[in-house]
Amino acid sequence: MEGSPIPVLTVPTAPYEDQRPAGGGGLRRPTGLFEGQRNYLPNFIQSVLSSIDLRDRQGCTMVVGSDGRYFSRTATEIVVQMAAANGIGRLIIGQNGILSTPAVSCIIRKIKAAGGIILTASHCPGGPGGEFGVKFNVANGGPAPDVVSDKIYQISKTIEEYAICPDLRIDLSRLGRQEFDLENKFKPFRVEIVDPVDIYLNLLRTIFDFNAIKSLLTGPGQLKIRVDAMHGVMGPYVRKVLCDELGAPANSAINCVPLEDFGGQHPDPNLTYATTLLEAMKGGEYGFGAAFDADGDRYMILGQNGFFVSPSDSLAIIAANLSCIPYFRQMGVRGFGRSMPTSTALDRVAKSMKVPVYETPAGWRFFSNLMDSGRCSLCGEESFGTGSDHLREKDGLWAVLVWLSIIAARKQSVEEIVRDHWAKFGRHYYCRFDYEGLEPKTTYYIMRDLEALVTDKSFIGQQFAVGSHVYSVAKTDSFEYVDPVDGTVTKKQGLRIIFSDASRLIFRLSSSSGVRATIRLYAESYERDPSGHDQEPQAVLSPLIAIALKISQIHERTGRRGPTVIT
To answer: Mind telling me which residue stretches traverse the membrane in this protein (predicted)?
Structure first.
């Protein structure tokens, strides 16, 4: 802290009409919009900061991190300059600006920060032609609830100026404290650059039996693993936790250098994009494989020979084996949560354990109230996200360590564990079809017409014959959620068709990028008989898909011949 105080400037600006957070306080747009549109990023950052009550904001601590994508360093500098000008007292930032989303949640909760700003577009591509995003997490460490997102949006529509200290410069590479004297401020503004892994690693040590996992990875007959960080934020975490701490060989971890464009790849851990890992696992050399998305909250599990564990199965299997984790043996299990589109495999486990299941809209923010009120111990979504009440975010590495703990305790392979689960609870065949990049107006009319069709009373009892299959409609609705904690009602969260054999079809509109829209189609069918557990999901579900395509006319109305992505 040298020289004269750094000036605080007030810069005139004009609002943008498109800065409504998509959910959880997050704004995701093409990178060029953030980089090229005048004041686009400062406007949103000011709206976020102004959403915090002034008395809570003055002198408070906040956490800042990014997944390392293109434009993150520039954006981090702007966030720091604006936080200082807006009265924030201290910022905790990961070295080189890097912090996974779970680590941000962890640090917020550990130091009791007022919240955190995460610069990420999750699993979307990076680079100048990719996407960029800003996400706001609140004081419990979780994504902003809708009431906060609405407040941010209202502020963004009327913003006239923002405060910034453009001369403030920080060294993101240097660990430790940096202090700055600002004009008209009584106390120095402080920035602390921290190791991105250490605080989060300390939390994991309290949850898992690291000795058991280390024995699995290093002892006689060690499990050979392959973990793909997909050039996102998780590289340092994989190396420090799995390799340095738990003894996995260094060559177990691939694509561990965070890159601004994720190596030109789509950092989405599924069978469509994590092909490098899939091919390695198909060779049979490795017994366990995992991949993470750009910001580290999503994950995929593969067994030997590329055996795929669906996210819904993974959630149910974790739930059925929580006794393998010291944290849950100590804390107990109070309840489970899943998003409505996620398969009902979890419900069967919950019934056997005599614990409640909370069915919520898609979006992790809906789980926070359940966990804060002590109702929920484990939550998950079909979009490759699982977590527990140790944080208020989904947590990819946590889920991987749970799986390794289960393997260590049960002394079985991934495939054996999954097949045992199916034998006990039955198999839920499940697929998601994404129709991406659609015109928002087109998707609006498709969903409007579908809702009118399926919610009409005459639709109940209707029968659909496809080949030898006959499906009878038992229930339909436009899903709405009443929060059991505060009574908040969230409507129009997807259209459900439930058949008499418990098969389900779900249609849901998603528009997280704000520019184009996505219709997601989900199909689920239950098979109790073990002799029917070896079929291809798409083959089993093809009659349901045929019904969905017939009633939605999605191909005819969009000009598409099929979905963009199938998971």
So the answer is: none
Main-chain phi, psi angles of 323, to 5 degrees: -65, -10
Residue 188 burial class via C-beta count within 10 angstroms: exposed 0-12, middle 13-18, buried 19 and up: middle
Strand partners, 63: 92, 116
Tell me which fold the domain 427-566 belongs to. TATA-Binding Protein (3.30.310)
Q: Which residue has the tokens 């809708």?
A: 146
Q: Which of 51, 66, 122, 149 is catalytic?
A: 122
Matching fold, domains 9-194 and 200-425: yes
Q: What is the CATH number of domain 200-425?
A: 3.40.120.10
Q: Give the relative orientation of helices 414-425 and 345-353 as an angle to the nearest 10 degrees.
A: 70
- Helical (H) or strand (E) element with 108: helix 101-111
Domain residue spans in the chain? 9-194, 200-425, 427-566
CA–CA distance, 141 with 137 (Å, rounded to integer): 6
Residue-wise pLDDT tens digits, 140-156: 999 999 999 999 999 99
Q: Give first-to-last CA distance, the chain, whole Å.
A: 52
CATH classification code of 9-194: 3.40.120.10
Global confidence as pTM: 0.95
Cα–Cα distance measured from residue 188 to residue 88, given in angstroms and rounded to the nearest whole number: 10
For residue 122, indicate whether it is catalytic: yes
Which helix (H) or strand (E) element contains residue 157? helix 146-158
Residue found by looking up tokens 């979307």 in the block: 124
Half-sphere exposure of 501 (CA within 13 A, CB side): 15
